[in-house]
Amino acid sequence: MSPSGTQPTKSNRLKYMIGGGLFLIALILMIISATKATAEFFMTVRELNETREDLTGQNLRVSGAVIGESITYDSAANELQFVIAHIPGKDDEIRAAGGLSFVLHQAVVDPDNPRIMVIYQGAPPDMLRDEAQAILTGTLNPKGEFLAEELLLKCPSKYEEAVPNQVEN
In this structure, what is the dihedral angle of CA atoms 163, 164, 165, 167, given to the nearest 10 degrees? Predict the structure, then answer.
């Protein structure tokens, strides 16, 4: 019995169940739409070039080797441009190919390796140099240029520990 002394009817229970079900469906749809809006696809330069038309305007994350001679900075427009070359996307592939330093070097010197132009609004980071690994978040424009919103750089040679020479007696 309910607190007022009357027994809830089947029609009232059915109304509550339908209302709760509609609320749950609306909540699920909101979660799905929010997830799609913020989702980023992590891709290699080769994958990006192969599916360019399908990915224009979508949030993407791509990694590649910076080609040093391509770096230009327009201080008046505060615009940085450079080209990245394809590197494998999986750590085990990078290890099998000889390590990150070797893979980055090979990616830059191979003229047949897939490449893509990157445009970034902002000053050039200190670590932006030839053969650095760039990890970029942004979108692809209709011209096929990657408009980077976030730029992370990793230079493996900077983090390799130098082993000091042993002094012999």
Answer: -140
